[in-house]
Design brief:
Elements (H helix, E strand, L loop, with lengths): L7 H7 L10 E4 L4 E6 L2 E6 L3 H23 L13 H43 L4 H77 L10 E3 L6 E3 L11 E5 L46 H11 L20 H5 L17 E5 H6 L6 H7 L4 H14 L10 E3 L6 E6 L5 E10 L2 E9 L3 E13 L3 E7 L1 E6 L5 E5 L2 E5 L7 E12 L5 E6 L12 E7 L5 E8 L3 E15 L5 E7 L3 E5 L15 H6 L15 H7 L3 H31 L12 E5 L6 E5 L3 H7 L10
Parallel strand pairs: 7-8
Antiparallel strand pairs: 1-2, 2-3, 4-5, 6-22, 9-10, 10-11, 11-12, 12-13, 12-14, 13-16, 14-15, 15-17, 16-17, 17-18, 18-19, 19-20, 20-21, 21-22, 21-23, 24-25
């Protein structure tokens, strides 16, 4: 790109990269924005006005046309091709061998021309010296023979030269592309090394600016942006074997130093019942905060979760069907995922309603939270529960079935685990599901989730929209939070993997306690553990009480804060805060996957039971969906046919509903549209949002087996 009125020195400081215009796509987003894309590189340019944008677009189109002409003339060529493979190398060696052979032919022809030329010259000299007419005939004949040989040899040389030139011309473009590719690779490597050098330099400056590590204490500090962490000693009267965490905005990533809690004595702590800071005091009498002994934790929880009713522990193995993903997805870039017709090959045999219900796998965390007397302690369990819902997604890269409008799913575990859950698909465009869970152990959870998803070519972003509400019956504590963004990487090439990123703010609207959780996105250059989650629990006054740390696919720990102090100021002018904590307690740890899980879609023990057939469920229940049942049985071809039938049936119902809406509009009547079966829309008193809440009647209808209001959707 050419920037007018700029010197070469200015270009060196302002250039942000290069793009090959001959293969670039030039698009306009709006009146002022221009998008240049070339394979994996995309540049967004913004003009000051629409007139200036048009001038730039015209200039870029002219430059692109010139670049294409230069490429066709072999003066310039695209460097966007892949490096030479083994077959390309063999072809190149064969070409070089052929060129060498042609060159040898040229040398032979050159020798023959020199030889016959000398003979011709001698013959001509002899002809000049002739005096007898009788001899002239023989000599002239000899000259003609020599000339004929010379002509034949010259033609052979010319043909050999022509073959050589044609061959060189054919392969010159490939050589230029290979050379250009190597040059670009070198430039990219130099840029990467330069970035690493800058990061290294920044880390060195940060380390030099941090105070030294004293022998009397151990600590960890970090700036409020969470970009640099360094060792720090705190000159205070605290005992030596305690933990220090950096407090910073946006829920930082913490480094934990294990301490011996028996050596800690501090008066006046008075945080969540931790009298004098003894670690034994911040465990409730019923051991709400479990000790860090993992075996005791697993044994106690597993005993509580043993079901009274025997349920299935496996499903048919996933068939090994191959499918060309790119042939299906290349025309889907930028489209809403719910509007793309997808074969079941990309699905798992569960619906989105069942995946939503799967969040209750670690419901015992809420049962323990009921027993907490302190709202900040209760917040810790709620935070651990919010993180636990992502534990099964680390290997679950398949897409759940989109529920049909009016589809429901119940999970009645009232006798086994004390709760029962009901989901209903209340909207199709945009897809929205309402969820209600009641537990006789003292809590109720409800939510309405809308899934917004975009396919970006290389990755898929899944953005759950909507608030999750949790209320405890005895205390009246009402917690609200929202989910983070899920990203599925390597959609086209490579192994699929999923990441969670973003922040969760959990608010207790009664006590005004808050918990800020940060899901750190994966970074190649980061030294942190992958899938890291960190956070701080604070009260209504903003005073921090607990530090949360762990990973969303393994476990979450809670560390009680016994003292906080302000540290040194960072280079950016940010004030640091150091949290001194007791040893961490494990609140949640992921259950191991069942045996042979890799052949059963990586389902957990709970997920294996979600689609298990049950009697007396509603006729709209996901367990009765035929395409999903066929897929689970391994009959994918039949499942694809059935899936298309159900989707076409749903489209026909939607077209009929749209026709009724038009007819009502023409007659001047109100048209209500689709009305959910078991939920109703109300304005939430806490968030002020219009959400679907359970209006009752489902479990009573199940007891009577009266499903007359259920539509025929299957």
């Amino acid at each position: 790109l050419l920037f007018p009125c700029r010197t070469q020195a200015e270009m060196a400081h302002t250039c942000r990269g290069t793009i090959n215009l001959s293969t670039a796509h030039i698009d306009t987003e709006d009146s002022c924005n221009i998008v240049l894309s070339n394979g994996g590189r995309t540049y967004h340019l913004k003009a000051n006005s629409e007139v200036e944008r048009q001038r730039w677009v015209t200039a870029l189109e002219l430059a692109k046309a010139k670049a294409i002409r230069m490429r066709n003339n072999q003066s310039d060529d695209s460097g966007d091709e892949e490096p030479a493979s083994q077959s390309d190398k063999s072809e190149l060696h064969g070409t070089l061998k052929t060129l060498s052979s042609k060159l040898e032919d040229l040398s032979t022809c050159n020798d023959l021309i020199a030889k016959h030329g000398a003979a011709l010259q001698r013959s001509l000299s002899e002809l000049e010296n002739l005096k007898l007419p009788a001899e002239s005939g023989e000599k002239i004949k000899a000259v003609n023979e020599r000339a004929t040989l010379f002509r034949i040899t010259s033609n052979a040389m010319i043909n050999a030269c022509r073959d050589f030139l044609d061959l060189a011309e054919t392969h010159s473009r490939k050589w230029q592309r290979a050379l250009q590719y190597e040059r670009e690779q070198r430039i990219r490597l130099e840029e990467t090394i330069e970035q690493l050098a800058k990061q290294h330099n920044s880390l060195e400056r940060a380390c030099r600016g941090a105070p030294g590590l004293s022998a009397g204490s151990t600590g960890i500090t970090s700036t409020t942006k969470g970009s640099v962490q360094s060792a720090k000693g705190e000159a205070s009267d605290e005992d030596e074997e305690t933990e220090y965490f950096d407090a910073m905005e946006d829920a930082p990533a913490f480094i934990t130093v294990t301490a011996d809690p028996k050596h800690h004595r501090r008066s006046g702590s008075n945080l969540s019942g931790a009298s004098e800071g003894h670690p034994e005091d911040w465990n409730l009498e019923d051991s709400v905060f479990e000790s860090s002994n993992q075996s005791n934790y697993n044994e106690s929880t597993c005993k509580d979760l043993l079901p009274k009713k025997r349920r299935r522990s496996r499903i048919p193995d996933k068939p090994n069907y191959s499918l060309n993903l790119w042939s299906i997805m290349k025309n889907c870039i930028g489209k809403e995922l719910s509007k793309i017709p997808m074969p079941v090959n990309f699905n798992e045999p569960l619906s989105m309603l069942q995946r939503l219900t799967e969040d209750l796998e670690y419901h015992e965390l809420l049962d323990k939270a009921v027993k907490c007397e302190s709202s900040t302690e209760q917040m810790c369990f709620v935070a651990a529960f919010s993180v636990s819902s992502y534990s099964t997604t680390v290997h679950r890269t398949a897409k759940p079935f989109n529920p049909l409008l009016g589809e429901t799913y119940e999970l009645d575990r009232l006798e086994e685990f004390g709760f029962r859950s009901l989901c209903e698909q209340v909207s199709h465009h945009p897809p929205a599901a309402a969820h209600h869970v009641y537990s006789k152990r003292g809590w109720t959870l409800w939510q309405e989730i809308t899934i917004a998803s975009k396919f970006r070519g290389k990755y898929l972003s899944i953005m759950p929209l909507g608030a999750i509400h949790l209320e405890f019956h005895s205390s009246g504590n009402h917690y609200v939070w929202r989910k983070v963004t899920s990203t599925v990487h390597n959609i086209i090439v490579g192994k699929l993997w999923i990441d969670q990123s973003g922040e969760i703010e959990i608010v207790n609207h009664k006590s005004k306690d808050k918990c800020q959780l940060k899901f750190t996105p994966y970074s190649y250059f980061s030294r942190d553990v992958p899938r890291k989650v960190t956070g701080v629990v604070s009260d209504a006054d903003g005073k921090a009480h607990y530090v949360m740390s762990g990973t969303w696919d393994e476990k979450m720990e809670c560390s009680k804060i016994v003292h906080s102090s302000h540290g040194s100021t960072s280079m950016e002018g940010k004030q640091k805060t150091v949290y001194q904590t007791l040893a961490p307690k494990v609140l949640w740890k992921k259950y191991p996957l069942p045996e042979n899980a890799e052949n059963m879609y990586f389902f957990s023990d709970l997920a294996l039971t979600l689609n298990e057939p049950e009697e007396q469920v509603a006729p709209t229940d996901s367990r009765l969906r035929p395409d999903q049942r066929l897929m689970e049985s391994g009959r994918w071809d039949e499942a694809n046919v059935e899936k298309q039938r159900l989707e076409e049936k749903q489209r026909a119902v939607r077209r009929r509903r749209e026709a009724e809406a038009v007819e009502a509009l023409e007659e001047g009547k109100d048209y209500e549209g689709y009305i959910p079966l078991w939920f109703e829309r109300k304005v939430d008193a806490v968030t002020g949002e219009l959400i679907c809440v359970y209006k009752g009647g489902y479990w009573e209808a199940k007891e009577r087996q009266d499903w007359s209001i259920c539509p025929d959707i299957f």
